[in-house]
Design brief:
single chain; alpha+beta; Yope Regulator, Chain: A; globular
Length: 115
């Protein structure tokens, strides 16, 4: 039997992610090794193995988020996700500020056709 995979995410970043997700009781944190959230079969937040957070945003929010927070589109396993932004560590530490983006992300993802 293969050993269970263990997360390599820094505990402090995992704690910040969980604190953010807890701000909305409608959102369930999923994933043991790589935490994520999803609605209707669509993922909308993700914490990669390094503890970098990606968040799905509507097209009209992506550009302003990238500019305001001086960040980039989120890249996962070498693939740039065009509708995901990389959440800077400074913003991940600011739950109150990030909470509004989580809500935007959640509401937007609920509008996508269920998988």
């Amino acid at each position: 039997m293969a050993a269970a995979k263990r997360s390599t995410i820094p505990p402090a970043k995992l704690e910040l992610y969980e604190k953010l997700i807890a701000t909305n009781p409608s959102i369930e944190r999923k994933g043991d090794v790589h935490p994520y959230t999803s609605v209707n079969g669509h993922m909308f937040t993700y914490l990669d193995q390094t503890g970098t957070m990606g968040m799905r945003l509507p097209k009209d929010e992506v550009g302003s988020f990238l500019k305001k927070h001086k960040t980039t589109l989120f890249e996962s396993y070498g693939v740039v996700k065009k509708d995901y932004v990389t959440v800077p560590d400074t913003l991940l530490k600011n739950t109150k500020e990030l909470e509004k983006y989580l809500q935007i992300s959640y509401e937007y993802t609920k509008t996508l056709k269920p998988k």
